[in-house]
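Task: sequence in, structure out. Protein: Asparagine synthetase B.
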Amino acid sequence: MQGADPAVVADALDTGDPLPGTGGFAGDLDGTLVRDVLGRYPLFVERDASDDERLDTDQWSRDPTALADPRSFPAGYVRDEAGRRRRWTLPSPDPFPDREAAVEAVRDAVETSIDAVDTDGLAVAFSGGVDSALLATRLDAPLYVAGFPDSHDVDAARSAADLLGTDVRVVELTHDAIERAVPEIARATRRTNAMDVQIALPLYLAAERVAADGFDRLALGQGADELFGGYAKVAKAPNDPRVEADTVRGAQREVIPTLPDQLERDVLALRAAGVEPVTPLLHDRVVAAALRLDGDLLVDGETRKVALRAAARHSLPEAVGGRDKKAAQYGSLAARELDRLARQAGYKRRMDDHVTQYVESLVE
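Result:
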């Protein structure tokens, strides 16, 4: 069992508690395959070629490349002799009674989860935004940012590090590094679509440097955008066609289930680079607090992640805690430069999904 004490997982299996106080789990529990409700640890099974719906629990792995025909085992599910079934779903708790109680609960959950991280062999992925800055200011570990020299993320990380009174190590991205890393990411994750590869690129290349510097664990702020209302499509609900919900809180509940697929990609890419991810903002206690936030504590006007930013005032200067950030693939310029390489290789924008075609050519 990876990620949690088997006894805790066994109790959660008995009670159906989806948030039993862990940072996720996946594996074999006395002959039963289990994966936590947010899929924080990848789990794959061999699919029987004669039946697309039947999963063979005797053949499973945390690494899809170890299986002949791997399929992701779904988050929140278990499988035993009786078959595969959903065991855990996210709860729908009532909102906090008032803003003060909400912010205090978020602060306590976030700080407790970060402070519990063992810093032995640890580095921190740092973009200069509130999520990674919370990790940076509470963990005694070196900071790393990956990006092209003129990228937003490099500038933001350097200026935020100055405000925090620390240093950040810059992993300078290059075209050669991208061309080398793309097929490695694609093989590790078994994904060649442009978006997944673009997102994984800065993580993977930063993690390579982290591993080369002698660290084997990398702390990341993953989950904060989904849990605390960091996405524009959540902020604009119900007027954004990318979500079906008619409220901000409903949109939050709509994006949280996208985490298993995202985390699977990120964990596999980071492991391929030589480090194990550490994600304290995805601990059950943080998830439980985030699920109780009302819409105005997720988004208020132009401000996103309202409760998280308010909670961060105890740890961060306002100039850092109030910052917005770009998605890693854009802030690092990895997406722009991968597109440039695709076009230079003859994969023009008029072609259907030209960057994905380029990625596939590198894998071949």
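Residues 49-53 have pLDDT under 50 and may be disordered.
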